[in-house]
Amino acid sequence: MNIDAIYKHLNESWNIDSILIKKAKEADIRCDEYFKEIEGNEFLHQLNVLSIFQKHGLSEYHFAPSTGYGLNDPGRDIIDDIMADIFGYESALTRWQIVSGTHAITCALFGILRPGDLLLSITGPPYDTLQTVINKGKGALTEFNISFSTVNLNEKNSFDYKEIEKSLKLKPKLIFIQRSCGYSWRKAISSEELSECCLFIKKHSPETIILLDNCYCEFVDLKKPAELGIDITAGSFIKNPGGGIIPCGGYLAGKKELIELCASRMTAPGILGKQGATLGMNRIILQGIFIAPHTVSEALKGSVWSAYILESMGYEVFPSWNERRYDIIQAVKLNNPKALKTFCQGIQNSGPVDSKAKLEASRLPGYSDPVIMAGGTFIQGSSIELSADAPVRPPYIAYLQGGLTFGHVKIGILNALNLLIKEGKENK
Ligand SMILES: *Cc1c(COP(=O)(O)O)cnc(C)c1O
Fold first, then answer.
1. Predicted confidence (pLDDT) per residue in 323-360, tens digit
2. What pLDDT, on a 0 to 100 scale, did the predictor assign at position 383?
């Protein structure tokens, strides 16, 4: 079907405002060169993932479920080997039992740090849910006499080398870098910035270990975390690397001795990664990893397209539609709580699941402000599926991300903007 006819249909049968239809057509054309670039990267990622699956000799018997202790589970082992390779490392710990990204990162923090050690974040305050892990929650790191300090990003939202150098004199055991923007108004950290920073850290404090919070960044840029000088990285399977297929879990990938420390914490010292029944999860985990480059590519196209249309409707966004991307997140400033809620409601109404749900901001474990979350996802809380969430605080920014298909992101953003336009007209 001709695209003009589809837009006509959206206008006439879905009541999408004509101004949005005009902008959508414009976005299709203007964004095309960026889509080509994204598709090129997807192809390379797909080639890489495929060759890694083949190199490790993935075979049907790896899909067999294990129960109980899960001893001798070759499928679990090959998933670890594949994930290690994807990120350029010798080891990985990939488990459905890791409940979230926060849990994966927590395994790294508690696995590596010891009483008396210093943890240093050099990308400002870490993601909301990690603050309880570090110093605000029961059983937090600080209760174990582990100290924590922060260096903020500079005014250009890049590394503040002067301050980092000062802090490195304290010989931090572990440096924490959050690559994606999380819930803050900044760009994701580029590969160039990351590799420069890792060199700087190792030059001034060679013993310091570098941990990368890789959430939302997997399969976006072509450089592997290991190539950038990162020692260990972690993420969630209900974001990029799960491809929208893996129903739960997380991963850690890094140097062998570090992954062992994390495994000691995730299971128990001595047991490490050698136990953990997979209950038939292996196939779906592998399938998700395999499809992840494509899913991420669809989500990225959605972000670029959304940024274009939001900008042309006068909203402030981050990053801009034509900026280079290192994560899948598209932030948009809505400026007031009502518009924020309406925007998220429009995304919720566009989901394949619970599209009729009425959104309310609510308090969530680990978050300091009430959060509005628009999901409508197959997998609960999955943010590689089209979703928008926002801590309700000025300047009322919505963080839009994911999309199993580019088409779905288009529909979602058109619906959300349409709802805002409708609301604007009613309020006149
Ligand atoms: C999602 C995310 C996490 C972990 O969050 P979970 O909801 O626990 O998976 C950590 N850091 C960043 C930057 C994230 O985006």
1. 999 999 999 999 999 999 999 999 999 999 999 999 99
2. 95
Cα 71 to ligand 1 centroid, rounded to whole Å: 30
Which residues approach ligand 1 with their CB closer than 6 A? 100-102, 127, 129, 178, 180, 182, 213, 215-216, 236
Cα 176–Cα 388–Cα 129 angle in degrees, nearest 5: 30
Residue appearing with tokens 């590689």: 384
Cα 132 to ligand 1 centre (Å) = 13
Render pLDDT for 95-150 as a digit per residue (tens, 0 to 9): 999 999 999 999 999 999 999 999 999 999 988 889 999 997 899 999 999 999 99
CA 303-309-314 angle, 5° bins: 120
Maximum Cα–Cα distance across the chain:
67
User: Which residue from 98, 102, 130, 187 has its CB within 8 A of the most atoms of ligand 1, so it is best to mutate?
Assistant: 102
Single-letter residue type at 90:
E
Measured CA to CA, the distance from residue 328 to residue 249 in angstroms comes to: 19
3-state secondary structure of 359: coil
Q: What is the pTM of this model?
A: 0.96
Compute the distance between CA of residue 101 and CA of residue 55 in angstroms, rounded to an integer: 28
